[in-house]
Specification:
By secondary structure, this protein is an alpha+beta fold. Strands 4, 5, 7, 8, 9, 10 and 11 form a 7-stranded mixed sheet that branches. A hairpin with a 6-residue loop joins strand 9 and strand 10. The two termini are 37 Å apart.
Length: 231
């Protein structure tokens, strides 16, 4: 996972996952909504797929099951922070090789099991169960999923909706190793976070993670942990 090579920055002229647009509009204050003297604005944004994520708690081991993977977008943010010139003067006709790349670990993040909503014939619950099996190896019945909430992510750029579920699993429910689908370019490591260490993990800034991890761990502490049997 942390061995990457032959890094090149190339123009993205088409994508299965991102569609850039520009919205032009006039915005009026509500008090003057009938006025045509509002401010003209424009905003660049991208359309992406909505997604699902799943907080998985293994009751056999009393731990959370999360995933760890290399994220190129996170990596390039770190590259630009250390070498600001790398992304300067990049136009649609050029590309460049990264001659002095930073260690790949700079782009590795801890995340909830998740996946994009790109299967029109399946419900969000069915997609979520499929992701749990593919990424983490647990076979979870749809009836065992608990919907926590949904929220918007990347509101300044994508505005996509992510729906968060909760699933309890046992060791007996694990039927595979997980790790994602290599044929789709996925290389995922399954990581277990002990319950007693979870909040320390959530706030440890040396371990890059998504907001979904922090929020869901807090939700668990408020809604599930008080009901657990006392040791």
């Amino acid at each position: 996972m942390e061995a990457i090579e032959e890094l090149e920055i190339k123009p993205c002229t088409s994508s299965l996952y991102l569609r850039p647009f520009r919205l032009c509009y006039r915005q009026n204050w509500l008090l003057y909504q009938n006025s045509m003297n509002g401010t003209k604005k424009f905003w660049d944004f991208m359309r992406t797929h909505d997604s699902v994520s799943i907080l998985i708690f293994n009751t056999s081991r009393q731990c959370f099951v999360v995933v760890k993977q290399f994220r190129p977008a996170v990596y390039m943010c770190e590259v630009e922070r250390r070498h600001p010139q790398v992304l300067q003067n990049q136009d649609k006709e050029s590309f460049s090789r990264l001659e002095d790349p930073v260690p790949a670990v700079a782009g590795v993040t801890y995340e909830l099991c998740a996946g994009i909503v790109d299967k029109p014939g399946l419900s969000l619950e069915e997609i979520a169960c499929g992701e749990v099996l593919e990424e983490c190896g647990y076979r979870v019945p749809i009836t065992d999923l608990r919907r926590i909430t949904s929220y918007r992510s990347g509101v300044g750029v994508t505005g996509s909706r992510q729906t968060l579920f909760y699933a309890e699993v046992t060791d007996q429910m694990r039927t595979g190793e997980g790790g994602g689908q290599p044929e789709e370019g996925e290389l995922i490591e399954v990581v277990e976070i002990p319950l007693e260490d979870s909040m320390k993990f959530a706030y440890d800034e040396t371990l890059p993670k998504t907001m979904g991890v922090i929020f869901s761990f807090m939700w668990f502490q408020n809604n599930i942990a008080p009901k657990l049997p006392k040791k």
